[in-house]
Structures are given as structure tokens and as C-alpha cells.
Amino acid sequence: xxxxxxxTNASAQWEFKEGGVLFKGPIDTASVDTLNGYTxxxxxxxxxxxxxxxxxxxxxxxLKPGTYKTPFSLFAYIKGGTQVYQTDQxxxxxxxxxxxxxxxxxxxxxxSGKASGKAIVDGRFSAPLKTSAPVTPTTKDSGQVVLWSxxxxxxxxxxxxxxxxxxxxxxxxxKFGTEPATCDPPGTYFxxxxxxTYQYVAKCASDSVTGSFTVTKGSCTKAQVNFSATPxxxxxxxxxxxxxxxxxxxxxxxxxxxxxxxxxxxxxVFGGKTYNRFTNTDGQNKxxxxxxxxxxxxxxxxxxxxxxxxxSGVTISFPAYEYTFLIDNLTxxxxxxxxxxxxxxxxxxxxxxxxxxxxKTTILVTGATVTVSGKTYTNVIKTKTIYSFTAGGTTTDIYxxxxxxxxxxxxxxxxxxxxxxFTTPTYIKNITRYKVI
Length: 437
Fold this sequence. Notes:
By secondary structure, the protein is mostly beta strands. The protein has strands at 13-18, 21-35, 38-46, 52-60, 66-69, 73-79, 82-86, 95-102, 106-115, 118-128, 142-148, 162-166, 169-173, 189-194, 196-204, 207-215, 220-224, 245-250, 258-270, 273-282, 285-294, 297-302, 305-308, 315-318, 321-327, 335-345, 353-372, 375-391, 394-406, 410-417, 427-435. It has 3 domains: 13-128; 142-224, Immunoglobulins (Immunoglobulin-like, Sandwich), CATH 2.60.40.10; 245-435. The strands form 4 sheets. The chain has a 14-stranded antiparallel sheet, with no helix packed on it. It is globular, with a radius of gyration of 26 Å. Mean pLDDT is 83; it is low at 1-11 and 131-138.
């Protein structure tokens, strides 16, 4: 369900209190997505004056009345581009969304808990999940329309059927090629409708496109469904706006073996630089990561670390540092390098020895089109990074990583190589869904 900006819907609304202050407004969008056995409910509302945005989200194996707690519930409130309240996805059970009703007509419930250290209370939401019935033109005049496509789901030479819905009716396009010469050839979706302008929705699994056509009296309107007509992407190659989130599945793993990454919208300062905080939930494991962007460069902050090898007694230590993981204005075959200096200590060493770690990233390709988990992504940068360390004058390569970044979406694919010559993957993770608001 989507309500246009400026529109009203008495049954689509939200409210909550913090510090005795009431916040409320309409819900503009409510959607349910199902992917790989998981169901995601997302509701986006705004304040009455349009200056603030509220987001609620729950996800799990099924969407039904019940209680959903962090990390399976999410709440965010942004005003004037600044994150005011945000749940901590690593703080288990700190925020609760209760769905009291969930059926084909709508969803409603309550929410409360901690967000950005504040107590959110008396939260309520209600929203329909179906669009209102289309208004049938009053005229008795009618015409014909045929919806067709050059290719099936997946594009190119695919013949996988496309499901199409128009004015409450649905059908399939099952044959593909050039624009039909007649209005009702086999394999197209043919309708007879009253004169007027209509919108269609075409679906291929979880992907969809919309379009419109106008029916005129006694004529045949031919409307092409085109999944390849993807808009030119905008935004960063690694978005950091609060509320953005991504889900990845490890290749050859079960649907339960997923990684859920969420941009919290709050920040932290390290070494005088401000970083955006992300949470990463991998099964029962949860951690945080910190990123920033300056110009065309993207950075991650890494905390100080120390690791001891039990067999040799050698302890390797590195102070905190940041490293560049992507520069988005480079061309293919250009490179950039990060270098870090640490120490190696052991009972046999009279003084700590200096050790240097480094990584060299090569831009393999830019502007690419890549298909991941059945979905096509455009304007993709692919990189390969080789990590090494130098001790005693000897440099050793230790592992490699390949990454694919899609403009406006973020990381869509990741391959890890643990042993030279870095051609046999240790594991692969692929994006399965994303929410970029």
C-alpha cells in the first residue's frame, strides 16, 4: 500500500511518545516482502508537516500476530535528515513490536522500548496492505489493450512467464519477441477495458515494474512490459544512510545461514573523524562496524587488536587504524594500497619486532552489469584485494577478497580466498534483498 505524498488515509497512521512528547502522523508505505523463506514487513510514515520520517520493520519465518523483539524488530525516526531515535540491533530484546492484527486487509499493533538511549512508549500503528479498488471510468466506451514483452523473467532469451495485473485482473505473458501485429495473439495478455488511463504491475518473482497505458474508443493499445529498462542508478557505491539494510546468503548454504547488515543512522568519533555505525547479525553472532566516506573514498575503522599463536607463543598486535576499501572514481586496472605497522612479541625476542601489514586493491572492472541471486544490478565496480604482511624483510601474501559494489545499492557479492594463488574461494556471500529508502 502506498499513499501519495499529500494524500490521506484514515486507517494508515502511527504515533508514539518519548519524554512525554507525542509524535504522530500518517503511514505512506506499508509493504510485505517474502524471500528465501523469510517475511519482511516494512512501514514508513511521516510527520504531519513532512519534516520527519518514521520507519518500523519486523522480519522472521512468518508474518502473523505476535511479539517481535530486536534484532527481529526495528524502529527509526529521522527529522531534517538527522537520526533522532534508532534501535540498537545488537541489544537483544531492547525494543518490541507487537502485531495484534495481520491479514489480507491490513496490519496493526503496538511498539515500545529503547531507541538511542531513550524510552519509546505508547507506540501504535495501523495500515492497510491492499490498494483501494480502482475507480472504473463512468463511460461505456471501450477499447482493447495487449501487454507484451521482448523477453521473459531474467531478460535476454528467457521464456519464463511474467505475471501482469491491471485494474484488479491478472494474467501472464508466456510468449516473447517483437511487438505483436494483432491485439490478442497467443502468449500475450489481452484485455478489453473502458476508455481511460490505467496502471499495470508486472512481476518476476520478487522483482516488479510498473507502467501505464491509455485505452481509447474502439482501438487497440499495445503496451510493452520491459524489465530491462532499469533507471540509471544514483547514490553511493556503499550507502551509509540510517535505515538502509541488506541481507546476504552464503552460497551453498541453507536459508538460515544469512548475514543481515543494518545502517543504524547513528555515529561515533574515532581519531577526530566521524563514522557511521552498522550492525551485522550472522545467526547468533552480532557485531558492529564503522564506515565513512570522503570525496570518492570509502573507509572502515578497525579497533586495536592483539592475537597470540598458542604453538609459537608469538603475539601480533596492531593499533587502531582506518583503511580505504573502495575509491569509486578510479578506472579499471588502477590500484590503491593501505599499510599498517604493528609489533610481534614472544618469550624468545628481547624486544618487540616490527611487523608491517598491507593490502593492495585493484579495480578489475567498472560500469558492469552483474546478476546476483537472480536479480540484475547495473553500474557495478568489481575489486580484488590481496592482503600481506612483512616481517624480517620477507613479504607473504596471506589471503584475498573479491567484492562487487553496485551504485546506489552497496555491496552485492563477496568472495573470500584463504590461500594463494587466490583462485579457489573459501566462501561466497550473495545479496538476496536490500532496502535502500
